[in-house]
Amino acid sequence: MKILTLPVGQMKSNCYLIIAENNDCLIIDPGDDADYIERIITEKKVKPLKIIATHGHFDHIMAATELMLAYNIPFLINKKDDFLVKNMSQSAAHFLGIKTDPPPIPVGFLKDKEIIKADDYEIRIIATPGHTPGSICLYIPQEKSLFTGDTLFAQGGVGRTDFSYSSPEDIKKSLKLIYSLPGETEIKPGHGESSTLANEKHFWR
């Protein structure tokens, strides 16, 4: 399996391409720059299967609609963040002063402990509320990789919980759950550099 990291948009959100040996590809958090993402997909000659959002904030989903149409593939997210998806255009205008495509319409909703397959790989959905009600992480045990969205960053950073819909208590529980995974697991956050759970656990309180 190959994992490509594509920082996109004004907020440098990490879009990830998870590419299996048969060239099946999952697109994680396409936050912006759809043309750039499509160019990489073409260069790598991969076949996109699904778009998955770790949460509903606009800076992680702004390219989703264009990619859905380009490849005729579904957009998936936890249902608890659907209200954020619907507010994508207003949020982008408010925070960045930009106009976006219409928000993506989820074809299905992801559930805790659900498994998504790409070739012989299993991607496990882990509900990690706190930053948003529907935040999830994607765990690939075979690769020892965990896509944490904005729940956990390198160097001890965690997602904001000062929004009206956020929960400091929930994110503490989510972090405890994340840290129960093997320490060698590499975290791939929604912004910034990768790290490992072992490294990040030193910051845990």
Automatic annotation (TrEMBL):
The keyword Mitochondrion does not apply. One of its GO terms (molecular function) is hydrolase activity. Keywords: Hydrolase, Metal-binding, Zinc. It comes from the Bacteria. Its cofactor is Zn(2+). Signal peptide: none annotated. SUPFAM superfamilies: Metallo-hydrolase/oxidoreductase. Residues 12-191 form the Metallo-beta-lactamase domain. Pfam families: Lactamase_B (PF00753). Transmembrane segments: none annotated. This is Metallo-beta-lactamase domain-containing protein. The lineage of its organism: Bacteria, Candidatus Gottesmaniibacteriota.
